[in-house]
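By way of example, what follows is a protein record of this kind.
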Amino acid sequence: MMTRKLFGTDGIRGTANTAPMTADIALKVAVAAARHFRRGNHRHVVVIGKDTRLSGYMLEPALTAGFISMGMDCVLVGPIPTPAVAMLTRSLRADLGVMISASHNPYEDNGLKLFGPDGQKLSDDIEAAIESSVATGTNEDLAPSAHLGRARRLEDNGGRYIEWVKNTLPRGMRLDGIRIVIDCAHGAAYKVAPSVLYELGAEVIPLGVSPDGFNINRDSGAMSPRAMQQAVVEHKAHLGLALDGDADRLLVADETGQLLDGDQLMGLIASRAHRAGNLKGGGLVATVMSNLGLERYLDGLGLSLARTAVGDRYVFEHMREHGFNVGGEQSGHIILTDHSTTGDGLLAALQVLAAMIERNAPLSEVGRVFTPLPQRLKSVRFAAGSEPLKMPRIMEAIRAAEAQLVGNGRLLLRKSGTEPVIRVMAEGEDEALVTAVVDSLSGLIAETAGGSGPAGH
């Protein structure tokens, strides 16, 4: 397979108006994607959504031009969550879906997430084929003048998604009497998320619902949940919800303002499904970053924790291949395949609320299902071209650290896929030992591999 320069672990992403996030490249990606997904003589359709970044105004028409030039009709749905684009792609029987978003990144960045007709993110092979087609740059199969596509705006696209999400709450269940703080990060869910909660009966205190093109994820949402946590306490709310810029990620605060991360949320949702006899696969799927405490909690219920590489697409692929219906990441991507093909923060939030209502107990009692083991993570830069994890001195130190943690913890070192950085993570019952192991290995990598020191967490 060719070395990929455009696609990363979650679509294409970069600084807006700088390669690969230019209008020119967006147009070429649209042409290449249309070429791959044209199948038969029917009228082809692509759904295009976006978040609230200023650069969406540049990328949306560029994509539209590319698809129209290939004879595809474009359905423009405007600012809407990533999972809504996946849902609408399936609902409208479209051939392709595209979300213009850089997720939790600041406004300067943007990205393209592509979905096939099944609403699922594209496989590595399809992304490689599209990238190869972009590199070739052929225009030989553009549509004749009479067969160009058209573009239209979908009426009430938000309403379709709102009703779909509401229907994932157990039949007859309402949120009456529940006070909820919802922080939408000035992002894609700024309209639909408060509406879903209000229509289900909740008292809603909205934050991060005034996008201006520049403030997406800024001091708000899942990346900066402090304002949400404070608002929960100030308003005496029952819980707080924080979404990221494209609303595929969720963090929750209980009534005391204490955060629940993705590991706790997955444990809560999986155990609830297990008690109801609805959990598939005999456990859940998470990444190598999920806390060992979650694994031990599931083991106590007779359930397993399957681990994948970091990235929600890898979680989903494992879920699909092995029949799981609950999975996600510690960062708050929760995938519930009985309902959706991708992470959906709002959908996951309703499952958390359902658990709280069924137990008739505050979230501080319901939501913290296990005690996390102390976990420490450091990122260390290394000199370009070097291979720190293959250096004998570092390999020997890793083996020694693993021996120290054996039986009561674990060690994980992984190379970043986007920058010259090694992530060093350890967790275990002895917090002092965990800290010492991470600090020691991080220092050794920086010293031995010619890096410039820690790259931040």
Summary: The longest strand covers residues 421-428.
